[in-house]
Design brief:
This protein is mainly α. It is about 65% helix and about 0% strand. The chain is built from 25 helices and three strands. It has a three-stranded mixed β-sheet with strand order 1-3-2, with helices on one face. Helix 20 packs across helix 23. The longest helix has about 30 residues. It is globular, with a radius of gyration of 24 Å.
Amino acid sequence: MAQPSDPADLLADELWAYLRRTEPHFALRAGDPVTRLPRGTQEEASEAAALGRRLLAELDPVSDVDTSTAAVVRELAGQLASSDEDYWWSFPVAPYQSYTWTMAGQQVFRPFIFATGDDARRYLSLAGDFTHAVKAVRTKLAGQAERGIELPRPALPGFLATVRAHRGAAPEFLRPAESRLTALDAAARGALVDGVDRFIDDELLPAFDAVLAYLDGPGAQGAVEGIGLGQYPGGAEAYRRLVRQYATYPIEPADVHELGLAQVEQLTEQLAEIRREVGFDGDETAYRARLEADPRFHAPDPEHVAATYRRHIAAIEPLLDQWFRVRPRAPFGVQRLDPELEAGMTFGYYEPPIATNPVGRYRFNGSGLADRAQISAAALIFHELVPGHHFHLARQAEDATLHPLQAQGTAESFGAYSEGWAEYAASLGFEMGLYTDPWDRYGACLHQRFVAQRLVVDTGLNLLGWSEDKARAYMASMTMESPTQVASEILRYSTDLPAQALSYRLGSEKFWQLRRAAERALGERFDVREFHEAVLGHGALPLIAVERNVDAYLNH
Protein backbone atom coordinates (compact mmCIF):
# COMPACT_ATOMS: atom_id res chain seq x y z
CA MET A 1 0.00 0.00 0.00
CA ALA A 2 1.13 3.56 -0.58
CA GLN A 3 3.14 5.18 2.22
CA PRO A 4 1.02 6.72 5.01
CA SER A 5 2.74 10.06 4.39
CA ASP A 6 1.08 10.33 1.00
CA PRO A 7 -1.78 12.82 1.53
CA ALA A 8 -3.68 11.30 -1.42
CA ASP A 9 -4.14 8.07 0.54
CA LEU A 10 -7.36 9.09 2.26
CA LEU A 11 -8.87 10.22 -1.02
CA ALA A 12 -7.82 6.92 -2.60
CA ASP A 13 -9.47 5.07 0.29
CA GLU A 14 -12.72 6.92 -0.28
CA LEU A 15 -12.65 6.39 -4.02
CA TRP A 16 -11.89 2.69 -3.66
CA ALA A 17 -14.75 2.27 -1.16
CA TYR A 18 -17.09 3.97 -3.63
CA LEU A 19 -16.04 1.70 -6.49
CA ARG A 20 -16.42 -1.44 -4.36
CA ARG A 21 -19.88 -0.30 -3.29
CA THR A 22 -21.15 0.59 -6.75
CA GLU A 23 -19.42 -1.86 -9.13
CA PRO A 24 -19.73 -5.61 -8.45
CA HIS A 25 -16.49 -6.62 -10.20
CA PHE A 26 -14.54 -4.33 -7.87
CA ALA A 27 -16.29 -5.81 -4.84
CA LEU A 28 -15.45 -9.32 -6.04
CA ARG A 29 -11.80 -8.43 -6.63
CA ALA A 30 -11.63 -7.04 -3.10
CA GLY A 31 -13.31 -10.13 -1.63
CA ASP A 32 -16.40 -8.16 -0.54
CA PRO A 33 -19.94 -9.50 -0.81
CA VAL A 34 -21.82 -7.90 -3.68
CA THR A 35 -24.66 -5.92 -2.13
CA ARG A 36 -25.87 -3.93 -5.15
CA LEU A 37 -25.72 -3.85 -8.91
CA PRO A 38 -25.53 -0.66 -10.99
CA ARG A 39 -28.93 0.40 -12.27
CA GLY A 40 -27.64 2.53 -15.13
CA THR A 41 -29.60 5.63 -14.17
CA GLN A 42 -28.89 9.32 -14.63
CA GLU A 43 -29.01 9.67 -10.84
CA GLU A 44 -26.09 7.26 -10.49
CA ALA A 45 -24.12 9.25 -13.07
CA SER A 46 -24.81 12.49 -11.20
CA GLU A 47 -23.70 10.92 -7.92
CA ALA A 48 -20.44 9.80 -9.53
CA ALA A 49 -19.84 13.25 -11.05
CA ALA A 50 -20.38 14.99 -7.70
CA LEU A 51 -17.89 12.67 -6.02
CA GLY A 52 -15.31 13.18 -8.75
CA ARG A 53 -15.54 16.96 -8.58
CA ARG A 54 -15.23 16.98 -4.80
CA LEU A 55 -12.18 14.68 -4.87
CA LEU A 56 -10.50 16.88 -7.46
CA ALA A 57 -11.10 19.93 -5.29
CA GLU A 58 -9.71 18.18 -2.23
CA LEU A 59 -6.70 16.94 -4.22
CA ASP A 60 -5.67 20.46 -5.22
CA PRO A 61 -3.62 21.15 -2.06
CA VAL A 62 -1.49 18.08 -2.81
CA SER A 63 -1.44 18.47 -6.58
CA ASP A 64 2.32 18.90 -6.58
CA VAL A 65 2.96 15.63 -4.73
CA ASP A 66 4.72 13.32 -7.15
CA THR A 67 3.18 9.95 -6.25
CA SER A 68 1.44 7.20 -8.15
CA THR A 69 -1.49 7.30 -5.73
CA ALA A 70 -2.09 11.00 -6.38
CA ALA A 71 -1.87 10.42 -10.15
CA VAL A 72 -4.43 7.61 -9.96
CA VAL A 73 -6.85 9.61 -7.82
CA ARG A 74 -6.53 12.66 -10.06
CA GLU A 75 -7.21 10.71 -13.25
CA LEU A 76 -10.06 8.58 -11.90
CA ALA A 77 -11.70 11.55 -10.17
CA GLY A 78 -11.47 13.50 -13.41
CA GLN A 79 -13.21 10.70 -15.27
CA LEU A 80 -15.93 10.50 -12.64
CA ALA A 81 -16.38 14.27 -12.76
CA SER A 82 -17.65 14.07 -16.35
CA SER A 83 -19.95 11.09 -15.71
CA ASP A 84 -23.11 13.16 -15.97
CA GLU A 85 -22.00 14.59 -19.33
CA ASP A 86 -20.72 11.26 -20.64
CA TYR A 87 -23.88 9.42 -19.55
CA TRP A 88 -25.82 10.42 -22.65
CA TRP A 89 -23.09 9.47 -25.12
CA SER A 90 -23.36 5.68 -24.85
CA PHE A 91 -26.16 3.46 -26.11
CA PRO A 92 -26.93 0.94 -23.33
CA VAL A 93 -28.16 -1.70 -25.80
CA ALA A 94 -24.87 -1.92 -27.70
CA PRO A 95 -22.94 -5.21 -27.32
CA TYR A 96 -20.04 -3.95 -25.21
CA GLN A 97 -22.11 -1.39 -23.30
CA SER A 98 -24.49 -4.15 -22.15
CA TYR A 99 -21.58 -6.34 -21.07
CA THR A 100 -22.35 -5.46 -17.43
CA TRP A 101 -25.39 -7.74 -17.71
CA THR A 102 -23.18 -10.59 -18.87
CA MET A 103 -20.77 -9.98 -16.01
CA ALA A 104 -23.63 -9.98 -13.52
CA GLY A 105 -24.58 -13.45 -14.67
CA GLN A 106 -21.06 -14.84 -14.84
CA GLN A 107 -19.57 -13.28 -11.73
CA VAL A 108 -22.50 -12.59 -9.38
CA PHE A 109 -25.53 -14.78 -9.97
CA ARG A 110 -24.07 -18.06 -11.26
CA PRO A 111 -21.38 -18.46 -8.55
CA PHE A 112 -23.56 -17.02 -5.72
CA ILE A 113 -23.34 -19.16 -2.57
CA PHE A 114 -26.49 -19.67 -0.51
CA ALA A 115 -25.67 -20.41 3.13
CA THR A 116 -28.35 -18.55 5.10
CA GLY A 117 -31.64 -16.77 4.70
CA ASP A 118 -29.73 -13.48 4.58
CA ASP A 119 -27.99 -14.74 1.44
CA ALA A 120 -31.35 -15.50 -0.12
CA ARG A 121 -32.61 -12.01 0.68
CA ARG A 122 -29.45 -10.43 -0.71
CA TYR A 123 -29.85 -12.48 -3.90
CA LEU A 124 -33.40 -11.20 -4.33
CA SER A 125 -32.22 -7.64 -3.79
CA LEU A 126 -29.59 -8.11 -6.52
CA ALA A 127 -32.20 -9.58 -8.84
CA GLY A 128 -34.24 -6.44 -8.20
CA ASP A 129 -31.26 -4.24 -9.11
CA PHE A 130 -30.75 -6.22 -12.31
CA THR A 131 -34.40 -5.76 -13.22
CA HIS A 132 -34.23 -2.01 -12.55
CA ALA A 133 -31.13 -1.79 -14.77
CA VAL A 134 -33.09 -3.26 -17.67
CA LYS A 135 -36.00 -0.89 -17.00
CA ALA A 136 -33.61 2.07 -16.99
CA VAL A 137 -32.54 1.29 -20.56
CA ARG A 138 -35.91 2.28 -22.00
CA THR A 139 -35.81 5.53 -20.02
CA LYS A 140 -32.28 6.36 -21.14
CA LEU A 141 -32.98 5.69 -24.82
CA ALA A 142 -35.94 8.06 -24.70
CA GLY A 143 -33.85 10.66 -22.87
CA GLN A 144 -31.15 10.42 -25.53
CA ALA A 145 -33.73 10.97 -28.27
CA GLU A 146 -35.01 14.08 -26.47
CA ARG A 147 -31.46 15.45 -26.56
CA GLY A 148 -31.07 14.78 -30.28
CA ILE A 149 -29.00 11.62 -29.80
CA GLU A 150 -31.14 9.34 -31.93
CA LEU A 151 -30.33 5.69 -32.50
CA PRO A 152 -28.04 4.99 -35.48
CA ARG A 153 -30.02 2.90 -37.93
CA PRO A 154 -27.05 0.74 -39.08
CA ALA A 155 -26.59 -0.45 -35.49
CA LEU A 156 -30.24 -1.30 -34.84
CA PRO A 157 -30.08 -4.97 -35.94
CA GLY A 158 -27.14 -5.54 -33.60
CA PHE A 159 -28.85 -3.71 -30.75
CA LEU A 160 -31.96 -5.87 -31.17
CA ALA A 161 -29.92 -9.08 -31.35
CA THR A 162 -28.00 -8.10 -28.21
CA VAL A 163 -31.13 -7.39 -26.17
CA ARG A 164 -32.80 -10.60 -27.37
CA ALA A 165 -29.70 -12.58 -26.38
CA HIS A 166 -29.72 -11.07 -22.90
CA ARG A 167 -33.48 -11.68 -22.62
CA GLY A 168 -32.85 -15.35 -23.28
CA ALA A 169 -29.83 -15.65 -20.99
CA ALA A 170 -31.01 -13.71 -17.93
CA PRO A 171 -33.79 -16.04 -16.71
CA GLU A 172 -31.42 -18.98 -16.97
CA PHE A 173 -28.71 -17.49 -14.78
CA LEU A 174 -31.14 -15.82 -12.37
CA ARG A 175 -32.95 -19.06 -11.50
CA PRO A 176 -30.62 -21.01 -9.18
CA ALA A 177 -30.64 -24.79 -9.48
CA GLU A 178 -32.20 -26.65 -6.55
CA SER A 179 -28.85 -28.27 -5.86
CA ARG A 180 -27.43 -24.86 -4.90
CA LEU A 181 -30.11 -24.24 -2.27
CA THR A 182 -29.62 -27.25 0.00
CA ALA A 183 -28.18 -25.15 2.86
CA LEU A 184 -31.36 -23.06 3.09
CA ASP A 185 -34.34 -24.08 5.19
CA ALA A 186 -37.61 -24.79 3.43
CA ALA A 187 -39.09 -21.35 4.10
CA ALA A 188 -36.05 -19.44 2.80
CA ARG A 189 -35.78 -21.73 -0.20
CA GLY A 190 -39.42 -21.28 -1.09
CA ALA A 191 -39.30 -17.51 -0.68
CA LEU A 192 -36.23 -17.33 -2.90
CA VAL A 193 -37.64 -19.48 -5.69
CA ASP A 194 -41.00 -17.69 -5.65
CA GLY A 195 -39.34 -14.28 -5.51
CA VAL A 196 -37.05 -14.96 -8.44
CA ASP A 197 -39.94 -16.31 -10.50
CA ARG A 198 -42.00 -13.21 -9.77
CA PHE A 199 -39.14 -10.91 -10.73
CA ILE A 200 -38.58 -12.73 -14.01
CA ASP A 201 -42.21 -13.13 -15.08
CA ASP A 202 -43.72 -9.92 -13.76
CA GLU A 203 -40.87 -7.42 -14.16
CA LEU A 204 -37.72 -8.58 -15.93
CA LEU A 205 -39.13 -10.09 -19.11
CA PRO A 206 -41.64 -7.24 -19.52
CA ALA A 207 -38.74 -4.79 -19.10
CA PHE A 208 -36.77 -6.51 -21.87
CA ASP A 209 -39.90 -6.53 -24.02
CA ALA A 210 -40.35 -2.78 -23.44
CA VAL A 211 -36.80 -2.16 -24.64
CA LEU A 212 -37.35 -4.31 -27.72
CA ALA A 213 -40.64 -2.53 -28.43
CA TYR A 214 -38.88 0.84 -28.22
CA LEU A 215 -36.10 -0.28 -30.57
CA ASP A 216 -38.63 -1.63 -33.04
CA GLY A 217 -41.00 1.33 -32.62
CA PRO A 218 -40.07 4.91 -31.64
CA GLY A 219 -36.35 4.17 -31.78
CA ALA A 220 -36.49 2.86 -35.33
CA GLN A 221 -38.82 5.65 -36.44
CA GLY A 222 -36.47 8.36 -35.20
CA ALA A 223 -33.22 6.62 -36.13
CA VAL A 224 -30.58 8.52 -38.08
CA GLU A 225 -28.83 7.06 -41.09
CA GLY A 226 -25.31 8.06 -40.06
CA ILE A 227 -22.98 6.69 -37.40
CA GLY A 228 -20.45 8.33 -35.10
CA LEU A 229 -20.68 10.91 -32.32
CA GLY A 230 -19.88 13.87 -34.53
CA GLN A 231 -23.32 13.82 -36.15
CA TYR A 232 -25.05 14.77 -32.87
CA PRO A 233 -25.27 18.19 -31.18
CA GLY A 234 -22.25 18.41 -28.87
CA GLY A 235 -20.91 15.10 -30.15
CA ALA A 236 -17.58 16.44 -31.41
CA GLU A 237 -16.70 17.88 -27.99
CA ALA A 238 -17.83 14.68 -26.27
CA TYR A 239 -15.53 12.71 -28.56
CA ARG A 240 -12.56 14.96 -27.81
CA ARG A 241 -13.18 14.37 -24.11
CA LEU A 242 -13.29 10.62 -24.66
CA VAL A 243 -10.05 10.66 -26.65
CA ARG A 244 -8.24 12.42 -23.80
CA GLN A 245 -9.87 10.09 -21.28
CA TYR A 246 -8.75 6.93 -23.06
CA ALA A 247 -5.28 8.25 -23.94
CA THR A 248 -4.60 9.53 -20.39
CA TYR A 249 -2.40 12.23 -21.84
CA PRO A 250 -3.29 15.32 -23.90
CA ILE A 251 -3.74 14.61 -27.61
CA GLU A 252 -6.11 15.96 -30.24
CA PRO A 253 -8.20 13.64 -32.45
CA ALA A 254 -6.79 15.26 -35.60
CA ASP A 255 -3.27 14.35 -34.46
CA VAL A 256 -4.42 10.79 -33.75
CA HIS A 257 -5.78 10.56 -37.29
CA GLU A 258 -2.50 11.74 -38.85
CA LEU A 259 -0.46 9.37 -36.67
CA GLY A 260 -2.66 6.50 -37.82
CA LEU A 261 -2.23 7.34 -41.50
CA ALA A 262 1.56 7.44 -41.12
CA GLN A 263 1.74 4.15 -39.23
CA VAL A 264 -0.59 2.34 -41.62
CA GLU A 265 1.68 3.42 -44.49
CA GLN A 266 4.78 2.18 -42.66
CA LEU A 267 3.22 -1.19 -41.81
CA THR A 268 1.94 -1.62 -45.36
CA GLU A 269 5.53 -1.36 -46.58
CA GLN A 270 6.68 -3.91 -43.97
CA LEU A 271 4.06 -6.34 -45.25
CA ALA A 272 5.32 -5.80 -48.81
CA GLU A 273 8.87 -6.59 -47.63
CA ILE A 274 7.71 -9.91 -46.16
CA ARG A 275 5.97 -10.81 -49.41
CA ARG A 276 9.18 -10.09 -51.30
CA GLU A 277 11.14 -12.14 -48.75
CA VAL A 278 9.04 -15.25 -49.48
CA GLY A 279 9.38 -14.70 -53.22
CA PHE A 280 5.85 -13.51 -53.93
CA ASP A 281 5.68 -11.10 -56.86
CA GLY A 282 1.99 -10.16 -56.65
CA ASP A 283 0.26 -7.42 -54.71
CA GLU A 284 -1.34 -7.62 -51.29
CA THR A 285 -4.74 -8.64 -52.65
CA ALA A 286 -3.24 -11.58 -54.50
CA TYR A 287 -1.24 -12.63 -51.45
CA ARG A 288 -4.38 -12.46 -49.35
CA ALA A 289 -6.04 -14.89 -51.75
CA ARG A 290 -3.09 -17.28 -51.36
CA LEU A 291 -3.29 -17.08 -47.57
CA GLU A 292 -7.03 -17.66 -47.59
CA ALA A 293 -6.44 -20.87 -49.53
CA ASP A 294 -3.88 -22.05 -46.94
CA PRO A 295 -5.44 -24.65 -44.61
CA ARG A 296 -3.78 -22.97 -41.64
CA PHE A 297 -5.76 -19.83 -42.29
CA HIS A 298 -9.06 -21.18 -40.90
CA ALA A 299 -9.82 -23.42 -37.94
CA PRO A 300 -12.39 -26.18 -38.50
CA ASP A 301 -13.85 -25.88 -35.00
CA PRO A 302 -13.41 -23.94 -31.73
CA GLU A 303 -11.11 -26.57 -30.21
CA HIS A 304 -8.65 -26.05 -33.05
CA VAL A 305 -8.71 -22.31 -32.25
CA ALA A 306 -7.90 -23.09 -28.61
CA ALA A 307 -5.16 -25.53 -29.65
CA THR A 308 -3.52 -22.87 -31.84
CA TYR A 309 -3.46 -20.43 -28.96
CA ARG A 310 -2.01 -23.08 -26.62
CA ARG A 311 0.74 -23.85 -29.15
CA HIS A 312 1.85 -20.22 -29.19
CA ILE A 313 1.67 -20.04 -25.39
CA ALA A 314 3.93 -23.10 -25.16
CA ALA A 315 6.45 -21.38 -27.44
CA ILE A 316 6.70 -18.21 -25.36
CA GLU A 317 6.65 -19.71 -21.86
CA PRO A 318 10.32 -20.84 -21.76
CA LEU A 319 11.44 -17.33 -22.77
CA LEU A 320 9.51 -15.21 -20.30
CA ASP A 321 12.13 -15.09 -17.55
CA GLN A 322 14.61 -13.55 -19.98
CA TRP A 323 12.34 -10.53 -20.42
CA PHE A 324 10.57 -10.29 -17.04
CA ARG A 325 11.94 -10.29 -13.52
CA VAL A 326 8.51 -10.84 -11.90
CA ARG A 327 5.72 -13.08 -13.16
CA PRO A 328 2.14 -13.31 -11.84
CA ARG A 329 1.31 -16.25 -9.59
CA ALA A 330 -2.17 -16.86 -11.05
CA PRO A 331 -2.44 -19.56 -13.73
CA PHE A 332 -3.83 -18.75 -17.15
CA GLY A 333 -5.60 -20.42 -20.06
CA VAL A 334 -8.06 -20.05 -22.92
CA GLN A 335 -11.79 -20.73 -23.06
CA ARG A 336 -14.50 -20.06 -25.60
CA LEU A 337 -17.02 -17.24 -25.09
CA ASP A 338 -20.59 -18.11 -24.25
CA PRO A 339 -21.93 -18.74 -27.79
CA GLU A 340 -24.99 -16.51 -27.33
CA LEU A 341 -22.68 -13.51 -26.86
CA GLU A 342 -20.42 -14.10 -29.85
CA ALA A 343 -22.48 -12.38 -32.54
CA GLY A 344 -21.83 -8.88 -31.21
CA MET A 345 -18.11 -9.26 -30.40
CA THR A 346 -15.46 -9.33 -33.10
CA PHE A 347 -12.89 -11.23 -31.08
CA GLY A 348 -13.21 -11.77 -27.31
CA TYR A 349 -11.72 -10.49 -24.08
CA TYR A 350 -9.36 -11.27 -21.21
CA GLU A 351 -11.15 -12.38 -18.04
CA PRO A 352 -8.95 -11.62 -15.00
CA PRO A 353 -8.73 -14.04 -12.08
CA ILE A 354 -10.99 -13.38 -9.09
CA ALA A 355 -11.54 -15.29 -5.85
CA THR A 356 -14.37 -17.39 -7.28
CA ASN A 357 -12.60 -17.96 -10.61
CA PRO A 358 -8.83 -17.79 -9.92
CA VAL A 359 -7.55 -18.39 -13.47
CA GLY A 360 -6.86 -15.62 -15.96
CA ARG A 361 -8.44 -16.59 -19.29
CA TYR A 362 -8.71 -15.34 -22.81
CA ARG A 363 -12.37 -15.90 -23.72
CA PHE A 364 -12.22 -16.24 -27.51
CA ASN A 365 -14.93 -16.02 -30.15
CA GLY A 366 -15.46 -19.50 -31.59
CA SER A 367 -18.18 -18.61 -34.10
CA GLY A 368 -18.03 -17.90 -37.84
CA LEU A 369 -14.74 -19.75 -38.21
CA ALA A 370 -15.05 -20.05 -41.99
CA ASP A 371 -14.68 -16.25 -42.16
CA ARG A 372 -12.46 -15.73 -39.11
CA ALA A 373 -8.76 -15.37 -39.82
CA GLN A 374 -6.24 -17.32 -37.73
CA ILE A 375 -3.13 -15.78 -39.27
CA SER A 376 -2.70 -13.33 -36.38
CA ALA A 377 -3.31 -15.91 -33.65
CA ALA A 378 0.19 -15.58 -32.19
CA ALA A 379 0.05 -11.80 -31.85
CA LEU A 380 -3.48 -11.98 -30.50
CA ILE A 381 -2.73 -14.47 -27.71
CA PHE A 382 0.47 -12.65 -26.73
CA HIS A 383 -1.68 -9.51 -26.42
CA GLU A 384 -4.57 -11.07 -24.58
CA LEU A 385 -2.75 -13.43 -22.24
CA VAL A 386 1.05 -13.66 -21.91
CA PRO A 387 2.93 -11.43 -21.66
CA GLY A 388 0.03 -9.05 -22.28
CA HIS A 389 -3.06 -8.59 -20.15
CA HIS A 390 -2.33 -11.44 -17.76
CA PHE A 391 1.16 -10.19 -16.92
CA HIS A 392 -0.29 -6.79 -16.14
CA LEU A 393 -3.69 -7.45 -14.58
CA ALA A 394 -3.03 -10.60 -12.60
CA ARG A 395 0.29 -9.36 -11.30
CA GLN A 396 -1.14 -5.97 -10.38
CA ALA A 397 -3.94 -7.60 -8.40
CA GLU A 398 -1.38 -9.70 -6.50
CA ASP A 399 0.87 -6.77 -5.56
CA ALA A 400 0.31 -5.96 -1.89
CA THR A 401 2.55 -2.88 -2.10
CA LEU A 402 0.03 -1.03 -4.29
CA HIS A 403 -2.91 0.86 -2.90
CA PRO A 404 -5.97 -1.35 -3.52
CA LEU A 405 -7.45 1.35 -5.73
CA GLN A 406 -4.49 1.00 -8.05
CA ALA A 407 -4.13 -2.77 -7.73
CA GLN A 408 -7.78 -3.53 -8.40
CA GLY A 409 -9.51 -0.45 -9.74
CA THR A 410 -7.58 1.02 -12.65
CA ALA A 411 -7.44 -1.45 -15.54
CA GLU A 412 -10.71 -0.48 -17.19
CA SER A 413 -10.17 3.23 -16.63
CA PHE A 414 -6.61 3.47 -17.97
CA GLY A 415 -7.16 1.93 -21.36
CA ALA A 416 -4.01 3.29 -22.95
CA TYR A 417 -1.95 1.60 -20.25
CA SER A 418 -3.84 -1.71 -20.24
CA GLU A 419 -4.33 -2.10 -23.98
CA GLY A 420 -1.12 -0.28 -24.82
CA TRP A 421 0.88 -2.65 -22.62
CA ALA A 422 -0.79 -5.65 -24.25
CA GLU A 423 0.05 -4.34 -27.73
CA TYR A 424 3.62 -3.60 -26.70
CA ALA A 425 3.83 -7.10 -25.19
CA ALA A 426 2.62 -8.69 -28.42
CA SER A 427 5.25 -6.79 -30.38
CA LEU A 428 7.98 -8.28 -28.15
CA GLY A 429 7.44 -11.46 -30.14
CA PHE A 430 9.70 -10.04 -32.87
CA GLU A 431 12.77 -9.70 -30.66
CA MET A 432 11.93 -12.91 -28.78
CA GLY A 433 12.18 -14.85 -32.04
CA LEU A 434 8.55 -15.94 -32.02
CA TYR A 435 7.70 -14.59 -35.46
CA THR A 436 10.47 -16.32 -37.40
CA ASP A 437 7.90 -18.11 -39.55
CA PRO A 438 7.03 -15.57 -42.30
CA TRP A 439 3.39 -16.59 -41.96
CA ASP A 440 3.33 -15.66 -38.25
CA ARG A 441 5.40 -12.52 -38.91
CA TYR A 442 3.01 -11.45 -41.65
CA GLY A 443 0.13 -12.08 -39.26
CA ALA A 444 1.80 -10.03 -36.53
CA CYS A 445 2.29 -7.10 -38.91
CA LEU A 446 -1.29 -7.45 -40.10
CA HIS A 447 -2.37 -7.34 -36.46
CA GLN A 448 -0.34 -4.18 -35.88
CA ARG A 449 -1.80 -2.54 -38.96
CA PHE A 450 -5.28 -3.59 -37.84
CA VAL A 451 -4.68 -1.72 -34.59
CA ALA A 452 -3.09 1.27 -36.34
CA GLN A 453 -5.98 1.64 -38.80
CA ARG A 454 -8.27 2.12 -35.80
CA LEU A 455 -6.63 5.51 -35.27
CA VAL A 456 -7.75 6.46 -38.75
CA VAL A 457 -11.23 4.93 -38.82
CA ASP A 458 -12.33 5.78 -35.26
CA THR A 459 -11.44 9.46 -35.67
CA GLY A 460 -12.81 9.48 -39.20
CA LEU A 461 -16.19 8.16 -38.10
CA ASN A 462 -16.60 10.17 -34.92
CA LEU A 463 -15.12 13.54 -35.88
CA LEU A 464 -14.30 13.84 -39.56
CA GLY A 465 -17.68 12.88 -40.97
CA TRP A 466 -16.72 9.56 -42.55
CA SER A 467 -19.63 7.51 -43.82
CA GLU A 468 -20.05 3.86 -42.97
CA ASP A 469 -19.20 2.98 -46.59
CA LYS A 470 -15.97 5.00 -46.54
CA ALA A 471 -14.90 3.42 -43.25
CA ARG A 472 -15.77 -0.06 -44.53
CA ALA A 473 -13.78 0.40 -47.74
CA TYR A 474 -10.72 1.71 -45.91
CA MET A 475 -10.78 -0.98 -43.25
CA ALA A 476 -11.37 -3.77 -45.77
CA SER A 477 -8.29 -2.63 -47.68
CA MET A 478 -6.13 -2.51 -44.56
CA THR A 479 -7.10 -5.73 -42.79
CA MET A 480 -7.77 -9.38 -43.57
CA GLU A 481 -11.02 -9.33 -41.63
CA SER A 482 -14.18 -10.70 -43.18
CA PRO A 483 -16.97 -8.30 -44.23
CA THR A 484 -18.89 -9.40 -41.12
CA GLN A 485 -15.98 -8.58 -38.83
CA VAL A 486 -15.34 -5.26 -40.57
CA ALA A 487 -18.98 -4.29 -40.09
CA SER A 488 -18.84 -5.30 -36.42
CA GLU A 489 -15.66 -3.29 -35.78
CA ILE A 490 -16.98 -0.17 -37.48
CA LEU A 491 -20.08 -0.23 -35.30
CA ARG A 492 -17.92 -0.83 -32.24
CA TYR A 493 -15.94 2.35 -32.98
CA SER A 494 -18.93 4.51 -33.84
CA THR A 495 -21.95 3.29 -31.87
CA ASP A 496 -20.62 1.25 -28.95
CA LEU A 497 -17.20 2.35 -27.62
CA PRO A 498 -16.09 5.54 -29.42
CA ALA A 499 -12.38 6.32 -28.83
CA GLN A 500 -11.77 3.14 -26.81
CA ALA A 501 -10.06 1.42 -29.75
CA LEU A 502 -7.51 4.24 -29.91
CA SER A 503 -6.04 3.07 -26.60
CA TYR A 504 -4.21 0.12 -28.13
CA ARG A 505 -1.92 1.90 -30.56
CA LEU A 506 -1.58 5.15 -28.62
CA GLY A 507 -0.52 3.21 -25.54
CA SER A 508 1.90 0.88 -27.32
CA GLU A 509 3.52 3.85 -29.06
CA LYS A 510 4.06 5.52 -25.71
CA PHE A 511 5.65 2.38 -24.22
CA TRP A 512 8.00 2.08 -27.20
CA GLN A 513 8.89 5.77 -27.02
CA LEU A 514 9.82 5.33 -23.36
CA ARG A 515 11.80 2.17 -24.05
CA ARG A 516 13.79 3.74 -26.88
CA ALA A 517 14.56 6.71 -24.64
CA ALA A 518 15.78 4.30 -21.93
CA GLU A 519 17.95 2.38 -24.41
CA ARG A 520 19.53 5.62 -25.62
CA ALA A 521 20.13 6.90 -22.10
CA LEU A 522 21.55 3.68 -20.63
CA GLY A 523 23.35 2.19 -23.61
CA GLU A 524 25.00 -1.10 -22.66
CA ARG A 525 23.62 -0.81 -19.13
CA PHE A 526 20.05 -1.17 -20.44
CA ASP A 527 18.30 -4.27 -19.05
CA VAL A 528 14.91 -4.98 -20.57
CA ARG A 529 13.76 -6.74 -17.40
CA GLU A 530 14.45 -3.62 -15.36
CA PHE A 531 12.64 -1.45 -17.88
CA HIS A 532 9.62 -3.74 -17.68
CA GLU A 533 9.73 -3.43 -13.90
CA ALA A 534 9.77 0.35 -14.23
CA VAL A 535 6.55 0.33 -16.25
CA LEU A 536 4.77 -2.69 -14.71
CA GLY A 537 5.95 -2.52 -11.13
CA HIS A 538 3.94 0.61 -10.28
CA GLY A 539 0.68 -0.85 -11.61
CA ALA A 540 -1.61 0.78 -14.15
CA LEU A 541 -1.23 4.55 -14.30
CA PRO A 542 -2.07 7.44 -16.59
CA LEU A 543 0.64 7.45 -19.24
CA ILE A 544 1.85 10.85 -18.12
CA ALA A 545 2.67 9.22 -14.74
CA VAL A 546 4.33 6.22 -16.42
CA GLU A 547 6.61 8.63 -18.24
CA ARG A 548 7.50 10.26 -14.93
CA ASN A 549 8.34 6.87 -13.40
CA VAL A 550 10.59 5.95 -16.32
CA ASP A 551 12.42 9.26 -15.90
CA ALA A 552 12.95 8.40 -12.22
CA TYR A 553 14.24 4.92 -13.20
CA LEU A 554 16.74 6.49 -15.61
CA ASN A 555 17.96 8.98 -13.03
CA HIS A 556 18.21 6.76 -9.95
